[in-house]
Amino acid sequence: METLALDGTSLKCSDLIKVYKDCDGKVKVVVQDSAKEKIHRAREGVEEKIKSGETVYGTNTDVSALKSAPPPGSGAQAAGYAGRWGKYVEHYDKQVCRAAWVILLNGFARGSTVVTWSLVKQIIRWVNMAWNKKNKIHDLVPNIEKGASVGFGDVIAPTVLHVETLAKYQIVSEDKAVKREYEFASGEVLALLSNNCFTLAEAVVTVSNIIETMEIIEVATALDIEAEEANTFIISKEAEEVAQWETKKKVIERLRKLLRGSQLFHKAPSSIHPYVSLRASTDILGTAWEALENTKQVLEDLINSHQGNPVVVGPWNSDVSETKIGPVAQFDTTRLFWSLSSLQQAMGCLVVSLGQRTLYRINTDGFNIPQFLTRRMLIFQEASLRDCMVSSQVLSPAFC
Predict the structure, then answer these.
(1) Are 169 and 162 in contact (CB under 8 A)?
(2) Per residue in 387-398, is it b (16+ CB within 10 Å) or e — as a string?
(3) How far does the chain reach from its first CA to its final CA, in angstroms?
(4) Could you say which of 32, 102, 176, 244 has the lowest number of CB atoms within 10 Å?
């Protein structure tokens, strides 16, 4: 069994993918002792503020337009928030739900929320037992609808998850849960629902899938070079030396390794100049990889940050000497939107390039290929070009 120890600062996308792919209880999630101490101290700071009569948003008040009302204090009341939106047909992959709760736990491990260690322990039990398909508790994992949240935070998805689990059952042993609502401390319900853990989890899984696709595309590019009997200078050490940026250099090096042992390096090329979409393949691949790396870095920044509102800051998690509790908007997704938009545009350009390369091969050597296949390829290219043009207009240049 592999153990993933959360500390609020060092969670990697690759760690989450291990959690996401584990359906057999082979990845155990724990919270480091140092993080446990931070959680205790943050909650102590919150309790002191409440006892002193200080108003703490979402802890001794309600939220949004109901700031002057009592706080949401139970699963039933949280279910009321979830029920304000309609029903949707499409559901999240249940493994995404597990990854989402690990992101939430990692945020709690920073000691910057109002949650108690008791709540954290209960979520850890669910994460480690309920997503193990061999465990009877697995049957209690609910289907979570996609697209139900409006506004900046996910809100509805995490609310439904905790309403259908923590608010109905408590895990009492390795394979047993009883019908008993968890007794939420003040502020904990808001901490569970005001975050973007689902958005981030799905983005991490998507990026992982794109990385696997990109690796296949690099192999396809090497095969295109082989099929064209292209001038290997485009992947030579000399081309690598003059490449404009590091990611492109790495692409050239990988393509050269993929073609190691090829006869291309020992005979004259079919043309001194490979066709443009092949000659520019290292640029287009390099751009897509760079967008992927940037998106991955943004994701790792966000999955290791405080989620939700309010934030608790004190000497245990910062350089400040006093406990401060205040409002933030760290559920905002603007930065993630920009990185994903960049990735979308880069992948759109890559898909157009692939379509053009495939059409070139069909037009060059495809006299034996049935006509309906070439027509499908034309439709594919047209759709790819349209998607690329749409994605490049996410924000008009006039607004930049």
Answers:
(1) no
(2) bbeebeeeeeee
(3) 49
(4) 244
Residues 240-260: pLDDT tens digits?
999 999 999 999 999 999 999
Residue with tokens 């939107």: 337
The model's pTM is 0.85
Q: How far is CA 350 from the centre of its chain?
A: 21
b (16+ CB within 10 A) / e for 86-118: eeeeeebebbbbbbbbbbbbbbbbbbbbbbbbe
Mean per-residue pLDDT, 254-277: 91
Residue 269, preceding peptide bond in cis (omega within 30° of 0): no
Mean pLDDT of the 201-207 span: 95
How far apart CA 135 and CA 352 sit, in angstroms, is 46
- Angle at alpha carbon of residue 346, lines to 343 and 352, rounded to 5°: 135
45 pLDDT more than 80: yes
Which whole number is the average pLDDT over 76-101?
A: 69
Integer Cα distance of 103 and 97 in angstroms = 10
203 and 336 Cβ atoms separated by less than 8 Å: yes
Contacts of 125 by beta carbon, 8 Å cutoff, 6+ apart: 171
Helices 13-21 and 94-108 pack at an angle, to 10 degrees, of: 140
Cα gap 234→228, rounded to integer Å? 13
One-letter amino acid at 27 equals V
